[in-house]
Amino acid sequence: MRRLRDEGVAILFVSHFLEQVYAISDRMTVLRNGRLVGEYRTAELGRLELVSKMIGTSLEALSELDESPKRAAADRDGTTPFVQAVGLGRKGSIQPFDLDVFPGEVVGLAGLLGSGRTELARLLAGADHADTGQTRIAGAVARLRSPRAAMRQRIAFSSEHRKAEGIVGDLTIRENIILGLQADRGWARRLPRRQVDELVEKYIAALAIRPANPDALIKNLSGGNQQKVLLARWLATAPKLLILDEPTRGIDVGAKAEIQKLVAELANDGMSVVFISAELEEVLRLSHRIAVLRDRVKVAEIPNDDDVTVEDVVGLIASGGSPS
Predict the structure, then answer these.
(1) Which residues are CB-contacts of 88 (< 8 A; sequence separation ≥ 6)?
(2) What is this structure's pTM?
(3) Pairing mode of beta strands 289-294, 272-276
(4) Pick from 225, 218, 174: which is nearest to 196 by CA?
């Protein structure tokens, strides 16, 4: 591209990766919600200022997320976890593991691709059947033999495969948002249209979904807005545990920041969250505790205190849980 530029070819470059934008472009045009924010020379616009312009807010609110898990982590002695996995495992999928998730807590899952993060999440969500162990919900043994059974226990699971297992492209924003609630209610008992409209309007506004037209086909939305619709679908079911598998993968930095902020707010409001991301900085920013996986085994679990760094988590992954 640089050679073509030097030969006089004009290039319009679009990327989610800011490093590439800064490495290649001479000028940047910033858009937000379909409107022009401004045009800037790359050498004169710092990265933090760029992100602020993309998001439309100061980065102070986002930087507070780096400290919120430390502040919000409370003494849980005597508190019953919302969900407890005890020796839960599936042959050929993931070795038996224990995991507690308390109300108002974000538990991050860290590990390399294929480490067992998704397999762990699918067992908690009833998407796969466990061969060993048990799941307890609010202290009582629960049999989660399907995602619908998990939904009845107030557990919602957003898959990492947004297009294959999440959105239904030929349906509208409205239809995608109510899909989970309608499935739980049963297809013979249709939700009243007035209730649907109120619910959809509420989540379009709360999550700043764009376009704000409930009749727009979801396949025509950006990746970030598709992800917001999926979050709206599961939030509409009023879950007590929200399992998010790579919710910010493949979306722009503005939508990513908004989703991170939403996860922190949900936990502050008392929801339990299991959060999976390949970006360890994101896991550290949001989690109160971090479970580390390697080769489909849970090898460590650590509190996310002030001293924990990305290097610490990488060390646990590399060493199989042994302190470096």
Answers:
(1) 96, 97, 98, 99, 123, 124, 130, 132, 133, 134, 135
(2) 0.81
(3) unpaired
(4) 174
In a domain, 62, yes or no: no
Cβ–Cβ contacts within 10 Å for residue 181, how many?
Answer: 18
Domain count of the chain? Answer: 2
Same domain, 42 and 73: no
Q: What's the pLDDT tens digit per position in 19-76?
A: 888 989 999 999 877 789 999 999 999 887 887 787 766 555 556 666 665 545 545 6
Position 61 in a domain: no
Task: Report the C-alpha gap between 116 and 294 in whole angstroms.
Answer: 7
Question: What is the spatial distance between Cα 154 and Cα 281, in angstroms, rounded to a whole number?
Answer: 29
The answer to whether residues 150 and 238 belong to one domain is: yes
Q: In the chain, what are the helix, strand and coil shares in percent, each to the nearest 5?
A: 40, 20, 40
Parent domain of 37: 2-56
Q: How far, in Å, CA of 246 to CA of 160, rounded?
A: 5
Residue 303 located in a structural domain: yes
